[in-house]
From TrEMBL:
This is Ribokinase. It comes from Shewanella colwelliana (Alteromonas colwelliana). Keywords: ATP-binding, Carbohydrate metabolism, Cytoplasm, Kinase, Magnesium, Metal-binding, Nucleotide-binding, Potassium, Transferase. The gene is rbsK. Activated by a monovalent cation that binds near, but not in, the active site. The most likely occupant of the site in vivo is potassium. Ion binding induces a conformational change that may alter substrate affinity. Signal peptide: none annotated. Its EC number is 2.7.1.15. It is found in: Cytoplasm. ATP binds at N187, T223, L224, G225, K226, Q227, G228, G254, D255, H279. It comes from the Bacteria. It catalyses: D-ribose + ATP = D-ribose 5-phosphate + ADP + H(+). Pathway: Carbohydrate metabolism; D-ribose degradation; D-ribose 5-phosphate from beta-D-ribopyranose: step 2/2. K(+) binds at D249, V251, T285, R288, G290, S294. The active site is at D255.
């Protein structure tokens, strides 16, 4: 049985839809409002759970608040097949919160309050080290404290786990952390934050990928929105096109891509085929509103990509 582990954030997403995104100082009336289950770590864990096969164990290490939304989140994850061992409810704390503005073309603006996510310290992570030691694959992001991400990657590498870093939200990352990463999956903004190279096309993505390789990761996948994803892996360098769709909401697209990528690789797909699998899952996500509720199940993907 494969064991897939995600360490990351869990949030309540307060989402407003607009005709267009507001400019600085501008007040707009939203077309609608809804409360969603979100957080990059939770989104990726849900994507993994919905896209993996039955013989796979999915664990998610996170902190939620001692509140009703924390209960709702954890109950929903259980129904998707995520094991409960890594989920901790923090007394006296609120579940993390995100405020999301979505334009009619699917673009978004997001602000996040960490809440209980901030309490997922390296010390707290230690209570779940048995999950890290047993994991075959680890997927992490940057919405939890940096020292925690470093600790998770360190323990995983000590036990031969393959590590994936989705370096979101965009930030400068230390070399000590990047040396522990096997696969890194930034978007254009995140790649620029790490390398200083503005990524707009295949040529600039290649330069950024070369620098990322020098920092540690053997595999670099830079997601490029509608263009697809630039892959640099084991001698292959180039863009793997995405799937053309009419997007309505891109909030969880990157998270679905990362979850799908880990699932596909854990099942033995070649890297190029794994990226195509991830593209297909993300393409479905952007045609639906919401974060976790927009993430597809395995049976919704074309069997031609499995």
């Amino acid at each position: 049985m494969s064991r897939l582990l995600i360490v990351g954030s869990a949030n309540a997403d307060h989402v407003m839809n607009f005709e267009f995104l507001p400019a600085a100082g501008q007040t707009l009336m939203s077309q609608n409002y809804r409360l969603e289950h979100g957080g990059k770590g939770a989104n990726q864990a849900v994507a993994v759970a919905r896209l993996c096969q039955e013989h796979t164990r999915v664990d998610f290490i996170c902190h939620v608040g001692d509140d009703t939304i924390g209960d709702a989140l954890s109950n929903a994850w259980l129904s998707d097949g995520i094991c409960e061992d890594g989920v901790t409810k923090k007394a006296g704390q609120a579940t993390g919160t995100a405020m999301i503005f979505v334009g009619k073309n699917g673009e978004n603006m997001i602000g996040v309050s960490a809440g209980a996510n901030a309490s997922l310290t390296p010390e707290a992570l230690g209570y779940h080290q048995h999950l890290l030691r047993k994991a075959d694959w680890l997927l992490v992001q940057l919405e939890t404290p940096g020292p925690t991400v470093l600790s998770a990657l360190t323990l995983a590498k000590e036990n031969g786990t393959t590590t994936i870093l989705n370096p979101a939200p965009a930030s400068v990352i230390g070399k000590d952390l990047l040396r522990l990463v096997d696969i890194i999956t930034p978007n254009e903004t995140e790649a620029e934050a790490i390398t200083g190279i503005e990524v707009t096309d295949a040529s600039s993505a290649k330069l950024a990928a070369q620098m990322l390789h020098q920092l540690g990761p053997k595999t670099v996948i830079i997601t490029l929105g509608k263009q697809g994803a630039y892959l640099s892996h084991d001698g292959f360098e180039g863009i793997i096109p995405g799937i053309a769709v009419d997007p309505v909401d891109t909030v969880a697209a990157g998270d679905t891509f990362n979850g799908g990528l880990m699932v596909a690789l854990s099942e033995g797909l070649a890297m190029t085929d794994a990226v195509k699998f991830a593209h297909q899952a993300a393409a479905i996500t952007v045609t639906r509103f919401g974060a976790q509720r927009s993430i597809p199940y395995r049976h919704e993907l074309s069997t031609a990509s499995l």
